[in-house]
Amino acid sequence: MSKTFEERLEAHPELKAQMEALLDIAESDIEKADDVELLTVESIQVVGQQVIQQWAEQQALKKSEAAKDLNGEELTGKGKKNSIGQRHWEKSP
Description:
Layout: H1 5-10, H2 13-26, H3 33-66
Helix pairs in contact: 2-3
């Protein structure tokens, strides 16, 4: 069963707060449309930044999980590299 909009929003408190801020703007007593527009645009920009940040964090987590070997250890180096490599003009032994 898929989650409801409310359940999904509860999983993202930063986005929930921003949606509440947008509702506050919609229900406000601000008299000038220009002021409402400015507040709305700023709020939407913040939402966009939060969405991108949360998406990036999820992608990084997925890639990190996928990069684990069969023993559950990450496939990253465990120590300092000992060799500086071989220059392209040097022949290998």
